[in-house]
Amino acid sequence: MSYVLIHERHELKEKVENLLKQKIKEKFNISDDECSINYKKLIKNNILQITPPEIEITINSSSNPGIIEFITFDKRGGKSKKPGNIKFNYKKLFKDSPQLILSGIGLFQFYQIITPILSVITIYLSYGDIKTIDLTKEEAYVIISLWQNCDEKNTISFEAGYKATNDFLKKRGEPTISREKFDRALESLLQIQSIESKDNKILLIEEISKDYTDII
Q: 207 to each of 47, 53, 194, how far by Cα in Å?
């Protein structure tokens, strides 16, 4: 008689988590404890979500109850059933958690926090290849401004986005940026798949995700 068990590969999920934590630690130059605290905040607020891959394990038992003759595995320890997944939610960070932006830490400190995070999450945009993209201070301001001023469809016109960015900067005593810098910022945001250009408008992407079946 054969039995099929579904096994979640939490050891792979743990490896992915440790890799992301290590990158955050390196970017921040912080201790393990500080890294764990910040990482847990991302998980708790559903900004970052990681699920483990699932595999099928076939167990062939003998006629003698309780005795297992053998277990069939492939090279990954079983038959692949469902890949693991990593999700990073831009909307939850910039739209649904405004307290992160408007809290006492200040905008510059917030920029210092999100830049390493945005750099780290691009690690899985190319499967099997670790990539990081460093956002400039202006690019961080742009993505915050776009999310705080987009419509219910997560869209905003280029002109409105540019105006919203400079209004946002003025209110916080920051120097405004030129249209050329704004356009360059949009190009960088396109690279990390946080925005798209659609119908002559900026479409803000709620989340990006990546499947994995082995350590990335």
A: 9, 20, 8
- Residue 8 and residue 12: Cα distance in Å, rounded? 9
Whole-structure pTM value: 0.69
Instruction: Give the whole-angstrom CA distance, residue 188 versus residue 193.
Output: 9
- The two tokens of residue 17 are 């988590």
The more confidently predicted of residues 115 and 17 is: 17
28 vs 109: CA distance, rounded Å: 12
Contact (Cβ atoms closer than 8 angstroms) between residue 52 and residue 8: yes
- Segment 155-178 shows an average pLDDT of 93
User: What total number of domains does the chain contain?
Assistant: 2
Task: Give the alpha-carbon dihedral of 65, 66, 67, 69, to 10 degrees.
Answer: 90
Which helix or strand (DSSP H or E) is residue 202 part of?
A: strand 201-204
| Model confidence at 192: pLDDT above 90 | no
Largest Cα–Cα separation, the chain = 78
Length of the chain: 216
Looking at the domain assignment, is residue 40 inside a domain?
Answer: yes
Task: Please report the beta strands in 73-180, taking only residues with DSSP state E, as ranges in sequence order.
Answer: 79-82, 84-89, 155-157
Q: Which of 95-99, 125-129, 207-211 has the lowest average pLDDT?
A: 125-129
Q: What angle do CA 177, 178, 182 make, to 5 degrees?
A: 80
CATH no. for residue 99? 1.10.10
99 with 184, same domain: the answer is yes
Report whether 42 contacts 17 (CB < 8 A). Answer: no
Q: Quick check: 163 pLDDT over 80? A: yes
